[in-house]
Structure formats: C-alpha cells, structure tokens
Amino acid sequence: MVINETKFPIEGKNQIFLVKNEIRDRFIYIFANNVMQKEMDKLPVIEIRELNKHITNLDNFQDIFSVADLDGSLSLDEQQFSEMFSSPVRLNALIFVLVLKGHNKLKMDYVEYELRENSFFTIMPNRILQTGSVSKDFQALILIADQTFMEELRPENRSPSMMNYMKIRKNPHVQFTHEEADQFTKCFDSVREKIRLRSHCFHKEVLLNAFMAFLLEMANIMIGKSDKMQKPTLSRKEELLNQFLQLLLVNCKEHHVVTFYAEKLCITPQYLSLVLKELTGKSANKWIDEALIVEAKILLKTPQITVQQVADMLNFSDQSTFGKFFKKHMGMSPMEFRKSL
Question: What is the pLDDT, as a whole number, of residue 31?
C-alpha cells in the first residue's frame, strides 16, 4: 500500500519531517475512515420503494419518483414511517421537503436541524438520517427521486456546477419566505399533476421535464439567498471530488479503471475511493460503472448504432464483455434494453 498520497520531492531534513507528518496523518485518516465506513455499512439502507409503502397520501411513478403529503397526526402507516427513522438510517434517494406547518427535529449526518413553517430541506443520497420530535400539527410536502430516475435527465442537464452542488450540500436547510413557500408549493403540485397523467404517451418524458422545472425553480430561489448561505469553499477532499467528476465526464468512455483517474490527480486509488466514499457514499469504481451505464443507455437509444459499435465506442474489448457488464448493472441485455424503449 502506498501511503504518501501527494507526489512531491524531498529536500532536506525539514522536508523529510513534513513527509513523516504527512504519512502519519494519512494513516490516521485512513484508519478513521475505515472505522466510520464500517459503522455506516451497519446502518439500514432505505430504498424509495420501502419509503413509498408507508406514505398514505402519495402520487408515485414506478417507485422511482414520487410526491407526497406528510402529516403529524399520523395514520398507522405513517407511524411506521416515523418509526423507520427513529434510529439512524441511510437513504438511497434524493429528497426535498417543504414544511407547511408545525415543526420537526431531525439529524442528518449527526447534525441536528429544526424544521418549521416554510423550511425547505434537501437530503442528498446516502446521507444518514434520524428523526426526533414531530409536532401534531406538522404538515409538509415531500418529493423523492431515485437515482435511476435522475440518470434519465439529459447529460447537459445533469451537470450542475460543483459549487452549486456544494452550496446545497453545505446548506441543506433553507428558510423560505411565505411568498417563496407558496410559489414552491405550486411546483410540488405541478409535479404531482404530471405524475397523474398515466395515460400520456410520453409520461416519463413529461415527468423529467417537470422535475427539471422543479430544480430550476429551486435554483432560482437559492440564488436569491446566496448571501445568507454558507459559502461553498471547497476543502481539499471536495476539490478532489470536483476534479474527479470533471475527469470522469471527459474520460469515462475510454478509461474504466480507478488507477487512471488517481494518477491524473496525483493520489493513490485507495485514497481516491476513500474520499469519494466519504463525500458521496459511492466508491470510485461505482462512479465509473454508473457513468459507463449512462453513456451506454444514451448510445443504445440511437437505433442507427449497433451494439457492437456501442461496445467499441465505450472501449470494451468485445461485444460479449460489454453485454455482460450491461446486464450485470441493468438486469437485461443491451438488445433487451433497446427493445424496451
């Protein structure tokens, strides 16, 4: 195992002393992250399908995208929903909550927040969540998006700037004005109306557009509050995440191994995966595989391109290897995926 993550020359005793400190700090960091990751791995992972089972007033699309009302005067199902989060869990979904009335205490990544009327709260995928007290008059709107649904957004729309991502990540709790809350309530209602258009020939496409409009409206309100939000100055690890994602966007079709990206960032593959796992809940290999699947799905939607050509364009050794990779992640062959479109 390579311990000295940063590549730099050693000059003199002072530099040697700094290197020893660097090695010591890396040992401590790796040990601490291994302990933290083992603890996180023990936590239950709640999928969107499980969430939907316990929400009574729900409009749902294929268990990958839903809008619902939450009520403090809980029904039996919603009591089970509340109990589900009484202990720490990890959520495998992107969730937005707008509080209409009452208050609710919760912890995300062990940091406590108190939500009250007009609070807007964002829960990124793989964050650790635990609920506390909920007032009897608590009412909220909630939108839940599974990763598979988010991946359907067009690539140019799935690439918000890293600074905006980090701004939301560091400011999950934002207080809206009454006017902003009323405006955003209409966004929830609009998405809900689109979910109910079940006979629409292009139902998923309509929903994706509605979700994009929802995100743009959210971004518009957030920009107006930027002066009050914590500035998204990136830490060293966040800089690495930013640089990795930029590299992945450009190189994922050609380069499928972690070593390539680690070398570009002048760090070891182990350290890159540790940083990504800490910040996003996903390893470097997982990021690379998911990027490849997205690119494969985009190419397979073009009927003029054969499966063999897709395999070549994504730098697989042959069509069989690509087919096995695709089926492992999608549960169907490339041809079956193409026929399902």
Answer: 45
Q: Each residue of 55-96: pLDDT tens digit?
A: 778 999 998 999 999 886 554 455 555 566 666 777 778 999
What is this structure's pTM?
0.61
Spatial distance between the Cα atoms of 324 and 334, rounded to a whole number of angstroms: 9
Q: Buried (b) or exposed (e) across 37-71, using 16+ Cβ within 10 A?
A: eeebeeeeebebebbbebbeebbbbebbbbbbbbb
What is the rounded distance in angstroms from the CA atom of residue 306 to the CA atom of residue 299? 9
CB atoms within 10 A of CB 124: 18
Distance CA 307, CA 170 (A): 42
**Inter-CA distances, 9 with 76, 255, 271, Å:** 64, 28, 20
Distance CA 273, CA 258 (A): 8
In the numeric block, the tokens 């079956």 are attached to: 336
Query: Rounded to whole angstroms, how far apart are CA atoms 312 and 29?
Result: 40
Hey, what are 292's tokens?
């490849």
Choose among 128, 141, 111, 118: nearest CA to 230. Answer: 111
Compute and round to an integer the Cα radius of gyration of the chain: 22
- In whole angstroms, give the CA distance from residue 61 to residue 52: 10
CA distance 191 to 101: 21
Q: Which amino acid is at 205?
A: E
* 16-34: pLDDT as tens digits: 444 444 444 444 444 444 4
Split at pLDDT 50, 70, 90, the class of 230 is low
- Tokens standing for 257? 């191994």
161, 222 in Cβ contact below 8 A? no
- Which distant-in-sequence residues (6+ apart) come within 8 Å of 121 by Cβ? 96, 97, 99, 113, 115, 172, 173, 174
| pLDDT band for position 197 (cuts 50, 70, 90) | very high
The CA distance from 146 to 141, in Å, is 17
**CA angle 32-260-151, nearest 5°?**
80
Structure tokens at 341: 């479109």
The one-letter amino acid at 112: E
Distances (CA, A) of 211 to 161, 333, 341: 18, 28, 20
Q: How far is it between the farthest Cα atoms of the chain?
A: 74
